[in-house]
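FORM 7B: Structural annotation worksheet

SECTION A. Query
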Amino acid sequence: MMKELETYIHYIVQVPLSVKKSLQSTPGIITMIVGMEIGLSGIQKGLIALLLVFHLDLITGCIASWIEHKNSKTQTKVYFFESSKLRLSVVKAVSYIMLILCSWLLGVLFFDMPISLYHSTKTFTPAELTTGVCIAIEIWSNIENVKRAGFDVVGKFTNVVKQVWNIRNTIKSGNE
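SECTION B. Predicted structure
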């Protein structure tokens, strides 16, 4: 009995330490990423990606709120972020979970075959498609937060595309 207890304590203490040590090196991180790519299914990868962009959205939202608070001419607010906005993040997370679970249930009950998108060779389950939509919403929310923080990603991209298009038209008209 004591030997079994010692074995369990050893695994509880030593395994997290060895995982931490392996993630502190570049080969360890690469091994983890490759292992996740090989071992995880599409929905699991999607949920991990959703978790990452959701947390990134929280971070960029806090940064944007802080910058807006610093740049505010009237310092009427006591805090730079509010509990109501954090509550909305919790509501959003619960909504995503419910939406993905409902789409998974629909997929289990009604869809016998995977769904293929137009011009795609890959097939998806309804839960994977729903997770992809949630990820797209979070990516757009991150872009909005970055713009609130003072860097307009979409505007800069649009300007670059316009400049490239103008150069293309200039070269094309010069060759005619």
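SECTION C. Observations
Strands lie at 115-116, 123-124. The mean pLDDT is 82.

SECTION D. Sign-off
Analyst initials: ____
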